[in-house]
Amino acid sequence: MAPASLPAPFLFANSHSFSGELWGLQAGQDLIGALHDDGSHDRVGLFDAYTGTSGSNGGNTLGRLQFEVGSIDLHASSIGAYWTHIGEDGWYVDSIGMYSWLDGGLSSDRGIGADTSGNSVAFSVEAGYPFRFDNGWVLGPGPM
């Protein structure tokens, strides 16, 4: 049975860390654009993306706090398609599907490592509506 409380020197919080970079590049093209009689419109297109991350990872290990233990290097090449419908008053529904090829590796500072590869599939659907104010300002959803 564990004691109700431990003295401060025996407390040990698990903490993971990553120090590195995460980046991506995406380019796409609308292939179909349709304007409907009610003022709404649709856009359908394709995109290509390349993303990656690399850096060092660490944590509480080998009796030390925030100790660097290895490195990671992962990359993904992706293709995808999207369809966006925008209603006449500005509301929208945005649908995206993406397939990715993953490749990379990780290694520990002790000389142990592994290569990894795989595939992933992702789907996303979002919807939004802009709020228009009398002074001409518009508050609407968008990328952050």
TrEMBL record:
Domain Autotransporter, first and last residues per copy: 1-144
Cellular component, GO annotation: outer membrane
Domain of life: Bacteria
SUPFAM superfamilies cross-referenced by the UniProt entry: Autotransporter
Record-given protein name: Outer membrane autotransporter
Organism: Sinorhizobium meliloti CCNWSX0020
